[in-house]
Amino acid sequence: MTIVLASMNPHKQEELSALFHGHTLLIPQDLGVSYHHEEIGSTYLENSLGKARTLHKLLLDAGRSTYPIIADDSGLSIPALKGEPGVYSARFGEKELGRKPTYEEQHHLLLERMRSITDRKAYFICCMVLLIHPERWFVAQETLEGEIAFNPRGTGGFGYDPLLYLPWKGRTVAELSLEEKNQVSHRGLAARAIRSILENHLEKNPYEST
Ligand code: IMP
How close is the Cα of 186 to the center of ligand 1, in Å? Predict the structure, then answer.
């Protein structure tokens, strides 16, 4: 099946291409569409659905609306910080620095906030939407649980990967290969659930082939 991904993040594109292997994953530029969505929602679901609906409208306007769309919104939630940075993970540190921070600056700021905190439990969360049209969509939200490391470690992945330590692996997420990360990650689990809907519900639904 051909699917369009509502994301301009090259790291997510790489992870999702592997997770949807066997399907054709396009990005908006492949269809000549320039995509941008302002993340103004207060939940992962609002944002992922918003991203998918924005892209659907752009494709409709460009006469290319027949493809299912996949969008995800994700972040890092730390219970000891009342769930922060949460849905605002991408923008964490912007207020302090007055500009978009680098991943390294975000690590530094977060480790400062965690300095005197002993409960270091944290989760990555991924909410993934498969949208057929604005009122027909499917959703999966998954987590990857670990602990905030005392120092960043590893060079793989993106975002907060060097900070999330997985005790059962003895490594941070940034120390996993792409395959290992996809096996256990919030995005990997959500993508497998969505893939199953795509293959078992949509591809076998006679209504889809008409
Ligand atoms: P968004 O889903 O594009 O809004 O991105 C949310 C932010 O959460 C990213 O910029 C990253 O900082 C963080 N994030 C989301 N998924 C991951 C992940 O798999 N690893 C590390 N950081 C992530």
Answer: 11
